[in-house]
Specification:
By secondary structure, this protein is α+β, with helices and mostly antiparallel strands. It has a domain of about 90 residues: Beta-grasp domain (Ubiquitin-like (UB roll)), CATH 3.10.20. Helices cover about 10% and strands about 30% of the residues. It is built from 3 helices and 7 strands, in the order E-E-H-E-H-E-E-E-E-H. Strands 2-1-5-3-4 form a 5-stranded mixed beta sheet. A two-stranded antiparallel sheet has the order 6-7. A hairpin with a 2-residue loop joins strand 6 and strand 7. The longest helix is centred in the N-terminal third of the chain and has 7 residues. It is elongated and about 70 Å long. The mean pLDDT is about 85. It binds FE2/S2 (inorganic) cluster. FE2/S2 (inorganic) cluster binds next to loops. The site of FE2/S2 (inorganic) cluster (FES) has 13 residues, from loops.
């Protein structure tokens, strides 16, 4: 079994995968999550990536136009790695890069100011220290938090 070098952009991550590997699995094994709503069944058309260069074997699909195929797009879940490849994952397909802005009043950085905008989230994180329940004080956790 020969190994192929797969380079994944924009993270610029390089891994070795056996020839004939499914591209979606190789991407996932590299620790990169992409949108694959149908779980790799070739149904949703969400796992589209761009092959910058390299040898690969895509299955025909109705989810990509001829122009997209010419541009190197393929569905990662129905594409086999046939040689060394360099692929690019479009931003619309990347998962796990979202960040939640949050802060607690009185902590450094709260409220957050970005340019001219002050971000004052409606949801705030609070740290509570509650005494553990005992036989003399056996109210529910909700009542304990309210109290
Ligand atoms: S994961 Fe749905 S088409 Fe590839």
């Amino acid at each position: 079994m020969s190994l192929c070098t797969l380079t994944i952009l924009p993270d610029n991550k390089t891994i070795q995968v056996p020839k004939g590997s499914v591209l979606l699995k190789a991407i996932t094994d590299a620790g990169i999550n992409i949108d694959s709503s149908c779980g790799g069944q070739g149904v949703c058309g969400r796992c589209r990536v761009v092959v910058v260069e390299g040898d690969y074997k895509p299955e025909p699909t109705t989810h990509l136009t001829d122009k997209e195929v010419e541009q190197g797009y393929c569905l990662a879940c129905v594409t086999l790695v046939e040689g060394d490849m360099r692929i690019r994952i479009p931003p619309s397909v990347q998962l796990g890069k979202e960040k939640i802005l949050a802060g607690v009043k009185g902590e450094v950085g709260y409220p957050l100011t970005v340019g001219h905008w002050e971000i004052n989230p409606r949801t705030k994180k609070l740290h509570l220290k509650l005494p553990p329940p005992n036989l003399d004080d056996s109210i529910s956790d909700l009542e304990r938090v309210s109290r």
